[in-house]
Amino acid sequence: VPLTETTNLGLAMLIVESADGAYQPIATVFSIREARELASRDRMARVEDLDRGGEPLCPERYVVWARGAKGEYLPAQEIDAI
């Protein structure tokens, strides 16, 4: 099934990944569009945290993981952190 910005993904997960392989779950998402919006907000929050002297995980990319036909979670969409 081809994925579009509004395809219902069920309970998909948005995960942020750094260049060194660290990762953090961000949220459950319903669609790719929602994932892009949350990734954008998360990026801004991390920049603000960094500006205040924090040490947030530096995102390289965000990945949406969604359930496949057999029930396993698979990467469905990658969103650049730039």
Explain briefly what this protein structure is.
The protein has one helix spanning 32-51, and strands at residues 12-18, 23-29, 59-67, 73-80.
Polypeptide structure, described:
The chain has 82 residues and is an alpha+beta fold. It has 1 helix and 4 strands, in the order ββαββ. It has a 4-stranded antiparallel β-sheet, with helices on one face. The relative contact order is 0.25.
Q: What is the element layout, followed by pairings?
A:
Layout: E1 12-18, E2 23-29, H1 32-51, E3 59-67, E4 73-80
Antiparallel strand pairs: 1-2, 1-3, 3-4
Question: Keywords, please?
Answer:
4 strands; single chain; 38% strand; 82 residues; 4-stranded antiparallel β-sheet; alpha+beta
Described by strand count, sense and barrel closure, the largest sheet is: 4 strands, antiparallel
Classify the secondary structure makeup into a structural class. alpha+beta
Low-confidence stretches: none
How many distinct beta strands? 4
Distance between the amino and carboxyl termini: 28 Å
Order of helices and strands: EEHEE
- What is Rg? 13 Å
Report the average pLDDT across residues.
94
Strands in their spatial order, largest beta sheet: 2-1-3-4
Shape: elongated
Number of helices: 1
What is the share of helical residues?
Answer: 10-25%
* Fraction in beta strands: 35-45%
